[in-house]
Specification:
Beta-Lactamase, Arc Repressor Mutant, subunit A, 325 residues, 13 helices
């Protein structure tokens, strides 16, 4: 399959998965192609926009309900535009690990078009002592999905280090009724849990995950898949990033996916390596580093333990199959 075509289909698949999980703020970047795939991309973008507008609009037309504004993404930059602080939800939305955002240029998380707009705004704010404005920016996730947002920008002075700082805040509008419904579900689940515990004869009551716990663990699952090449943080730090604790992360991940976090990470790294060995001509050593292994011997041992054959044997077999066909 053509590389460009494969990339476009992969982005469409990612977009569909995000929409299926309830995230309608993503968009796919358009290009100059005039084919059926581009028509599908246009339809998906329009569908996501209409669903998002409908959800937000309900908060305005239903006057007996209150709109709730939620800080979705928040960044603090230094005078060079380097990210010094980012909230955990921004990491989840961008499908990036916390350490992959901190210390990087803010521009790296914008599309090329938005980078130009951001540069023009940056020239203005860096000259002024006090600066407040809002601009429309297109953020890009690690999966190459586009996230259109209105960013509110303010400058302030950090007297502890005597330097200017830039605060970027992205607000998401939500119907307050949704929050009330979520709170009601939490109370019902909590009451049901207490009732079950009273009936339980064992001194160790069974743990039940809330809807919010499940959502956070699923976000952690997606972050792992999108960062196979990165050094994985400790379970405690990773749990904090997705907004839970280490115990719930370990228990919930095992309940949802039937395996531990580290075992899942290893399985996904080896699965990706298997695909690259079979369907690309990338050197085996490069593949090992691409999926997060620090040495070729460790990669080979882990691969053989998982599949029963070495990476070199699979590559040799794949090459032989291509020659025969």
């Amino acid at each position: 399959m053509d590389t460009n075509l494969h990339h476009r289909m992969q982005v469409i698949n990612t977009m569909l998965l995000e929409m299926a999980s309830g995230n309608f703020f993503y968009r796919i970047e358009r290009n100059s192609e005039n084919d059926d795939i581009e028509a599908l991309i246009l339809t998906l973008n329009m569908l996501a926009e209409e669903i998002q507008d409908t959800i937000v609009h309900q908060g305005y037309v239903n006057t007996d309900q209150t709109n709730l504004d939620i800080v979705q993404m928040s960044f603090i930059l230094d005078e060079k535009g380097i990210v010094q602080m980012v909230n955990q939800l921004a990491c989840n939305i961008l499908s990036c690990l916390y350490d992959d955002i901190i210390g990087n240029d803010f521009e790296n998380f914008l599309t090329e078009e938005s980078t130009i707009k951001w540069s023009a705004t940056w020239k203005q704010l860096i000259k002024k002592e006090i600066f407040d404005t809002s601009i429309g920016l297109y953020f890009k996730s690690k999966g190459n999905l586009i996230i259109p947002k209105i960013a509110y920008i303010s400058t302030f002075h950090d007297f502890t280090i005597n330097e200017k700082r830039i605060l970027i805040t992205v607000i998401h509008h939500s119907n307050f009724r949704n929050q009330l419904d979520a709170d009601l579900k939490q109370r019902v689940i909590k009451d049901d849990k207490l009732t079950s515990e009273r009936k339980e004869k064992s001194n160790k009551p069974k743990i039940r995950l809330s809807f919010e716990d499940i959502r956070k663990i699923r976000e952690g699952h997606d972050i792992i898949i999108n960062n196979l090449e990165s050094d994985f943080p400790s379970l405690k730090d990773f749990a904090l990033q997705i907004g839970t604790n280490e115990f719930k992360l370990k228990y919930g991940f095992k309940e949802l996916y039937g395996t531990t976090v580290h075992r899942f990470l290893m399985q996904e790294r080896l699965r990706k390596a298997q695909m690259l060995i079979q369907y690309s001509d990338v050197p085996l050593k490069s593949i090992a580093y691409m999926v997060g292994f620090k040495s070729m011997p460790h990669f080979s041992r882990s691969f053989k333990k998982r599949y029963g054959y070495t990476p070199s044997a699979l590559r040799k077999n794949s090459i032989s199959s291509e020659k025969d066909s």
